[in-house]
Amino acid sequence: MSATTAPARPDLVEQRPSPARRVWALARLELTLLVRNRTALFNALALAPLTVLAVSSFLLPDAAEGRGAVAATLLGTLLVFALVFAGYYNLCTTAVARREELMLKRLTTGELTRGEVLVAMSVPAFAVILAQVVLGAVAVAVLVEAPPLRNPVLVVLALVLGFTALAGLGMATAIVTRTVESAQITTLLPLGALMLLSGSTFPLDLMPDAMCAVAERTPLAAVNQLMTLGLSGIAPDGDAVGLRESFAAGAQPALVLFAWTVLAAYLVQKRMSWEPRR
Amino acid sequence: MNAPVITTTGVRRTYRGSGAPYEAVRGVDLSIGQGELFALLGTNGAGKTSLLEVVEGLAPASAGEVRVFGKDPYADRAAVRARTGIMLQEAGFPADVRAGEMVRMWAATLSRRSDEDVLAAVGLEHRAGVAVSSLSGGERRRLDLALALLGRPDVLFLDEPTTGLDPESRRDAWSIVRSRLAEGVTVVLTTHYLEEAEELSDRLAIMHEGRVVREGTVADIVAGEPARITFTLPADAPAPPPLLGSAERERGVAGTRYVVTTPQLQEDLFALLAWARDAGVVLGDLDARAASLEQAFLSIAADGAAALDPAA
Asked: Among A267, B21, B142, B160, who pairs with B122 as Cys (CB 3.0-4.6 Å)?
């Protein structure tokens, strides 16, 4: 068979947009939808400072370690909560909603690749988490004390790798979630386990050794470890470390987050449905 | 037919779920030329959309080969997709998105950009700032069409494009499709409206149970179907001619209504008129017409099993 060529179209400009341009086109639309939803926007932006205000009110009176340590703990906890709710849960429900309203199916008919669609869909969640961390840091600085910053690279790694892993897990949970309403059920167990084993709600060193070893391999505990290293310079074993040692100590939690990201990406690529199940 | 831009050879598509595998497309061979409007018809569940999704590159074929512009539309997705526009039978929008925002987003992801105002082309320019949730079903369908037209594709896949449109909007959609055909665009259409296929298509295929059972022009498809002559005879009319022996009869107040199905319309009509003239009989409500696409379609739907049997 001979392939035919397109008829001459002098009015057409033909140049494939870069992946970044395609992603931004969809991400901008998702951001527009987020801004239009006032309730979601308020929850996304006001939750962080309010949480800091509430938690600091009962942490500060017992701040034996000093206000700097409290500030670091608050910021780490804030990131953990933001990753769980604005990352994991939010992206699970977004993926399910877009699938149920047949938007995902529509997007497969265009030039966006599936990976680009998922990245674009994650951009508003990442923007919200970033805003929460920044606003939370400001609130912590005003209400408690400016948090210490021993290794900014590890803090950024905690944010970026933590978001990637939790976003991926949120989308992987969408595989077994039929409706937005049922996301409240399907996310319940992973959400509870992630929070319990994160070290933010229950100290890991109070757990039995075997359980602690498991917890250290969960994504939110890894985020917590990276944040503690990056902000306070305290390693998981409780020792204070210098800048160089903090990179070495941060390698394991970073690898844990990378491994969870790979697992989530594999599940999403193999099992995620792009249209409602018949 | 012009040089083919789409070919399928022995294409099969099997769904494998928790139950037994279901083969929705069972070995389809098609060739669609540039600038042609090819309509794919069939009863519900005939396999049209399953086949179309494979040709569009939305799903891989379970067996066989598909080529669009000489490339595999699933494996060479990026190259093929830049030249195709797809209007799905069912696709949605986020409820809060506005029509104009959706068009701008879609346009920014495409390789081809033109100055054409697609919202104006589908008559939605005054609704650009309206949320999709406030558009009527027909308006949403027109927005679907607008997105498929963006980037001025060389091949348009339209899966039941006029479902839910009022007659005027349907005519407008046909007019848009015709204008694209005049520019050399190839259109693959599925529809439940047979008059739409009859009016627009250069060639068509009728699918039944996953296979193409008829393919050709409308004239080719209806050629094997009998024509129909209907008329009413008054109660006191003389005995009708022998050709009416096998006709269906229905007695009524005005007389007896005859329905004659015949493979030789001209000869039988001539004989009937000659008899009426000689007998001095007036043929009431006389109607004679060649077989329609609808007739051919219904006959295939009713007799699908026989149509699939090569020996039949």
From this structure: B142
- Residue A6 domain-assigned (yes or no): no
Q: Do A101 and B95 touch (CB under 8 A)?
A: yes
**Residues B204-224 pLDDT 10s:** 999 999 999 989 998 888 887
Rounded CA Rg of chain A: 21
Among the partner residues B58, B69, B184, nearest to A7 by beta-carbon distance: B184
In a domain, A79, yes or no: yes
Answer whether A11 touches B (CB < 8 Å).
yes
State phi, psi for A112 to the nearest 5 degrees: -65, 135
Kindly tell me if the per-residue pLDDT of B90 is higher than 80.
yes
Are the beta carbons of B110 and A111 separated by less than 8 Å? Answer: yes
Q: How many domains does chain A have?
A: 1
Residue type, B107: A
- Residue A47's region, left for phi above 0, alpha for psi from -120 to 50, else beta, is alpha
Give which of A108, A119, A274 to mutate to test B binding, by max B Cβ within 10 Å.
A108
Q: Which two tokens stand for residue B299?
A: 């006959």
Q: Cα–Cα distance between A117 and A23 in angstroms, integer?
A: 7
pLDDT class of A4 with cuts at 50, 70, 90: very low
pLDDT at A53: 73
**CB-CB under 8 Å, A11 with B109:** no
Q: Is residue A2 part of a domain?
A: no
Q: A14 vs B112: CB contact, 8 Å cut-off?
A: yes
Per residue in B25-42, pLDDT (tens digit) is: 999 999 999 999 999 998
For residue range A85-111, list pLDDT tens digits in order. 899 999 999 999 999 999 999 999 999
Contact B105 A103 (CB under 8 A): no
Quote the minimal CA–CA distance from B113 to chain A in Å. 5
* Euclidean distance between CA atoms A53 and A49, whole angstroms: 6
Using one digit for the tens of pLDDT, what is the confidence trace for A115-134?
999 999 999 999 999 999 99
- For residue A127, being part of any structural domain is answered with yes
Evaluated on CA atoms B256, B260, B266, B272, the torsion sign reads negative
Of A278, A273, A277, nearest to A95 (Cα)? A273
* Residue ranges of domains in chain B: 1-83+154-162+182-224, 227-290
Of B5, B106, B111, the CB nearest to A14: B111
User: Alpha carbon of B149 to those of B49, B153, B160: distances in Å?
Assistant: 20, 7, 15
Give, in order, the Cα–Cα distances in Å from A78 to each of A55, A85, A140, A201, B16: 10, 11, 10, 11, 44
- CA angle in degrees (0–180, nearest 5) for A104-A105-A109: 110
> At the top level of CATH, which class does the domain B1-83+154-162+182-224 belong to?
alpha beta
Domain housing A138: 19-271
Is there a contact between A17 and B58 if contact means CB atoms under 8 Å apart? no
* Cβ contacts of B58 within 8 Å, gap of 6 or more: A108, A109, B74, B86
Within 8 A by CB and 6+ apart from A195, the residues are: A80, A84, A201, A220
Chain B residues with at least one Cβ partner in A under 8 Å? 2-5, 7, 34, 56, 58, 67, 69-71, 77-78, 81-83, 86, 88, 90-97, 101-102, 105-106, 108-116, 147, 152, 154, 183-184
In this structure, CATH architecture of domain B227-290: 2-Layer Sandwich (3.30)
